[in-house]
Amino acid sequence: MQDAYHPWIRNNIFAKGIMVAINTKLALPISKRLAKTNITPNQISWIRFLLALVAAFFFSFHGWNYHVIGAIFFQLSMIFDLVDGQVARIKKMNTVFGRYFDLMLDLVSTIVVIFGICLGYGYTNIPELLSVDMLSKILGIKINIWMVGMFFLIALLFEKHLLAYEHYLEEKFKIERSREREKLIKKHSFLKHVPKGGITIDFRTFLIWGSVVINQVVLFLLLLSFIEIYHSFIRILFFWKIAKDIKTGIDMV
Questions:
Q1: What is the DSSP-derived secondary structure letter of residue 192?
Q2: Longest dimension (CA), the chain
């Protein structure tokens, strides 16, 4: 059953604590049960999306208790995001469509949740380390929570676009990320200092619902935005090096 879990996750610093200790233990029993049924991985993905909708609904209310309930549903949504991939590997139902479908639902789920968070923002007694008013004073322009949420979503969308393109390269040119990375490191030693992967879904999910519960939405969304931008830059760097080394002449847009 260990092979049903994506090996890349074990190499990512953001995934080790929470995912291995909690999420995997919760997801694997569910995957074992669902793998014995006729349910498909894509149907499980829809369940994950519905859980995200419920989370967004509770996040949109003005009250800490509602936000805690929303956090629980959003965490459940993330667990089912692991389940669909595990069931796909157990049943040997991995498909290119399923890969892109999972990416799309992850993006749409996050957009819906951020929308709910913005609706319910600002109604708690917990003080913020960085509020929209503070950010407005720092930047010298009027900022609202919708602008912060949009900034994060743009950064996320860009990173997801690059991730989808990475999958495209893998499928079309049979590029294996880990093997190509080792080749590139041998040729360009500075790349050994670059993190192996981007931010994991569970880490992003944890920070999002955690920021709502402790009322640090602005600070955490900005932090996530800059992490997404950084890893997007790293992906572009690898794409450029790979395209140059394998001489495919690929159009990079």
A1: G
A2: 58
For residue range 67-82, what is the model confidence (pLDDT) as tens digits? 999 999 999 998 888 8
**How many domains are contained in the chain?**
1
Per-residue model confidence as pLDDT tens digits over 95-140: 767 777 887 888 899 999 999 999 999 777 788 999 999 999 999 9
Buried b (16+ CB within 10 A) or exposed e, 160-179: bebbebbeebeeeeeeebee
Q: How far apart are CA 227 and CA 60, in angstroms?
A: 25
**For the chain, how big is the Rg over CA atoms in Å?**
19
52: nearest Cα among 100, 9, 121, 107: 107
The CATH number linked to 190 is: 1.20.120.1760
Q: Is 253 within a domain?
A: no
Q: Is residue 252 part of a domain?
A: no
DSSP secondary structure of 3-47 = GGS-GGGGG-TTTIIIIIIIIHHHHHHHHHHHHTSS--HHHHHHH
The 3-state secondary structure of 142-160 reads CCCHHHHHHHHHHHHHHHH
Structural domain containing residue 43 = 2-246
Assigned domain for 38 exists = yes
Q: Which of 166, 73, 85 is nearest to 112 (CA)?
A: 73
Please state at what angle helix 145-173 crosses helix 132-139, rounded to 10 degrees. Answer: 80
* Domain assignment of residue 74, yes or no: yes
> What letter would DSSP give residue 91?
T
Higher-confidence residue of 252 and 58: namely 58
pLDDT, tens digit, 9 for 90 and up, residues 211-240: 999 999 999 999 999 988 888 887 787 777
**Burial of 21 from C-beta contacts in 10 A (0-12 / 13-18 / 19+):** exposed
